Amino acid sequence: MLPGGVHTRYVDEWIAQGHFTTERVLKQLAELAGGHGYLDDEARETLKKNFESVATDEAGTQRLTEPGFISLLKSFNALPPALEEEAGPILYRCLHYLSIYPYRHEHPPSLTFPELTRALGWLKPFPDSLSFNVFADSGRSLTPADCKRILFQGLATDRNGDRLPFDRDEWRRQARRRAFDFTDEKRHWVQLEAVMNCDDWGDEMYADLVHVLFSAQPELPLPTAGAQRDSFRPLAARLHAGALPLYHFTVSPERLRPFIRLLLFNFFGLHDRVKCVLPRDLDDTTECILRAFVQNSDVGVNWPMFDDGFMVAPTLLIPLYRILSAFSETQLPPSNELVRRLSKPGRLFNVPVMIQISTIFGLEDVLYIDECRLLWSHDAARDQANASELATVISKPELPVLILVSGKDTQTHEKYMFGAFIPCPSEDCKRIQPKRNDDHPICSLFELCPVQDVYGGSLECPAWTISDDGISFGDPQTGVALVVNNSLSRATFTQVLDGEDEPIYYPTVWRGNRRVDIKLEGIEVWCEDGDLPESGYGTFSDEGLEAVAQWF
Q1: Residues 239 and 364 in one domain
Q2: Tell me: the pLDDT tens digits for 350-369?
Q3: 325 membership: H or E segment, kind and range
Q4: Rounded Cα distance, 265 and 91, in Å
Q5: Low-confidence residues of the chain, pLDDT below 70?
Q6: What confidence score (pLDDT) does residue 542 get?
Q7: What is d(CA 284, CA 391) in angstroms, rounded to the nearest whole number?
Q8: What is the pTM of this model?
Q9: How far apart are CA 372 and CA 475, in angstroms?
Q10: Where does the TLDc domain start and stop, copy by copy (predicted)?
């Protein structure tokens, strides 16, 4: 049933006139994706030249094949040989799927220039994502969740999600949350055009088709307003009939693994030939991040799991957008030199760990690496220190502090690494402060190994407490807590979902109640402070002791 006052008179007339053939709608979508709102003349010309440089002639039509696409990635220094056979085809298949989206008909395995333009358009990141506007209505832009979902659809080759429990009402509730989930600074204007995209008519993919059809309507002479978005629902329902619903879509861990590895390899820019990190250096990091997505290894990753994974790796897709933008940029952006400036790598905070933490917090937004120094470190096998000393070290700085705690499970000997990001130590030690802006996260615990996870802090609670037994980040009776004993030799990590009190650090529900006892190997405290001398490994250096002697 259409909403009151909505009719399909114009739409029916346009259908009879042939305005909504698949070819015509896709042509307009290519024009939208390649228009001035997304590509200027120079960028469009660069995209065309890159396409033509590797295109092959197929029956008089230039087409981009998978080998041609891979050769372009290699020319951007984005695809190392170790990832060529896996990551390259996966990314190409994603573009191939999106080249005719939201339609789903069979089409040649190679891409025409309009098809490539459409596919790249669908993968534009928010807030530069596609916007389906016409003069007749305010239209709708793709939201941050839409951008991730459409990428997921392109990666998902399996259709076995129906083997997972499915609650239609819960699916719609989460769809509503995602439809209106914007950062604070964007919410005030984007939410004005946000609409629910999963209802009795169809799921999110059906809603995409409605928006595309709506934006493809012919212009009517003023003062005629044109057709409203809801007028296209019956047409979209007919075109979408028989399509498998989104909850059937899954991506296997085997496909997601090389994709994540590709993103990590390019995290700090499209690398030059002098590599500061090799793909094999990122194998462990890749597995830790992958486990955050794979909640059911027997089936694979469905859309809600994919979305959950990005909750603990929100900046992971930045390298993808950098790679795709290289297709239309005349000059490749310079590689970020952060990894080269990390002093004395080989500690806990080495290059792979630095990249991994950057997928959680966006390291450049929270720690200026030029001014990031190892403030204090503890080797559990060699050094003598106690929890009070650690608490004193982390409570004094005015600028953000990063803590890393590493060790092994006392029973399984599995490696664990936890950490804490404390934006304002001198205040957070009393009560956790609100985040300063969207780019600066709240005080949080995080897990890097064996499963990447993030546990946000609760306002007004102390980030840590000290007692005769040791230092506690969180309350062991509720939520998430990391308790390090007084001699800094052991730690216990707990997650309690059914605690009576409000958690200090919020748990990740799907991982359940758990407890891990850890034999510590090392602790590091890094601080952003350009005037602080760098310490030596294992304790303070002489200069560091002099600089912070007044703290003790």
Answers
A1: no
A2: 888 988 999 998 766 667 66
A3: helix 318-325
A4: 15
A5: 1, 36, 134-139, 183-194, 221-225, 270-278, 331-346, 363-366, 368-370, 438-439, 529-552
A6: 40
A7: 30
A8: 0.91
A9: 29
A10: 350-526
Residue with tokens 């807590």: 481
The last residue of a domain, from among 215, 233, 248: 248
- Please identify, among 225, 248, 271, the residue that sits at the C-terminal boundary of a domain: 248
Q: How many domains does the chain have?
A: 2
Q: Three-class SS of residue 30? A: helix
Helix axes 144-155, 87-98, angle to 10 degrees: 110
Host domain of residue 449: 340-551
Q: Tokens 């200027």 appear where?
A: 40
Q: Is residue 113 part of a domain?
A: yes
Single-letter amino acid, residue 149: R
CA pair distance 113, 148, nearest whole angstrom: 24
Alpha-carbon 377 to chain mean position? 31
Q: What pLDDT does residue 535 have?
A: 42
- CA 493 to chain CA centroid, Å, is 26
Check if the beta carbon of residue 176 is closer than 8 Å to that of residue 154.
no
With contact defined as beta carbons under 8 Å apart, do 388 and 466 qualify? yes
Helices (H), 266-411: 283-293, 303-311, 318-325, 338-341, 351-361, 363-366, 387-395
Q: Assess contact for 503 and 479: CB atoms under 8 A.
A: yes
pLDDT of the residue at 364 = 67
Per DSSP, the three-state class of 544 is: helix
Whether residue 438 lies inside any domain: the answer is: yes
How buried is 42 (Cβ within 10 angstroms: 0-12 exposed, 13-18 middle, 19+ buried)? exposed
DSSP state at residue 31: H
Q: What does R_g of the chain's alpha carbons equal in angstroms? A: 26
SS3 category, 454: strand
For the chain, the 3-state helix, strand and coil shares in percent, each to the nearest 5, are 40, 20, 40
Q: In the prediction, which pLDDT does 548 show?
A: 38
Q: What is the 3-state secondary structure (H, E, C) of 239-294?
A: HHCCCCCHHHCEECHHHHHHHHHHHHHCCCCCCCCCCCCCHHHHHHHHHHHHHHHC
Q: If 0-12 CB within 10 Å is exposed, 13-18 middle and 19+ buried, where does residue 199 land? A: middle
pLDDT at 276: 61
Q: Are 262 and 85 contacting, i.e. CB atoms less than 8 angstroms apart? A: no
